[in-house]
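1st attempt posting a full record on here, be nice pls
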Amino acid sequence: MKKLSVLFTLIILTVSGLFAAPSKIIMLRDNGPLRKANDSNGVEWSETVRAGTELELASSQTVIKDLVTSSKTYTDVEFYEVKYNKNTYYVQLTDAEPADGASVIQEDAVLFTRPTLKAFRNAMLETGTFVVAGDTTKEMNITYRKIIFYDTNEGVKRTRYVNSENISSSDKDVKAVILLETARATQNEELQKELLNNAKSIKTSILIEGYITREINKILNISTFSDDTIEQYEAYAVIYDPDGSKINVRSMPGTAGEVVGQIESADTPAIYVSLRTESTETINKFTDHWYYITEPETGLEGWVFGGFIGFQ
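the predicted structure (as tokens):
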């Protein structure tokens, strides 16, 4: 009987280990606040960390405390107790999610409320957004992945589904994007260049590598197209976007170019095209050249991605 009891205990411990709660928590909110306890039952702001940062989860149980801000005290707010750099902090439930690791959107991802095409929402998460990824579900040859992310518009965590191909759970991809975002936020030019070089040196997936390169070019205002790859190209065309959005006109070819103006795609007059890049670029799954255009009525000149141009 004693042997059976020991065996039963070992089985219980093994099964419990398979379903053990995560020991980490992922910050989903950019510049997510870490708060320290005060002398009463409250917590106050201490410092911030970037989205994607892994924190040590001190307990799987949440705690109720008062949130003290400069303008108001909110009572009975639920927090996770965490450890970061050997200090104890409190993180609000809306800002972070327990998980074994962070994931990152590696290509703009359409959101679904359920794992089916019928649950499509007119919203998406941009490349570089940090999420916590969950289970996958396959329907009609599409594998959906459950995700939890921070909704910056509403200031809450949301649960949605995306095409699993749009997500990377690679530690290297996550690290590279964190370095990129840290560099974007710093005002120190030398430190910024060092962080960008570190981000670029990491061997990431192809999609994240392309994203890192594009974003570095934007930060440093570098065009991916050199002068000797630009050719003459004379034509008349119209600007068009299926969504009816305004189209950016840039100072140089590529998304690193500064936006010098915008053109309404709905009522655009004919534009004159005088230059084109020899090579192409892929943006939101559309591959095309960049064209130098002149808008005759306003005199606006600059570069427009070919995916928004219809030639006459």
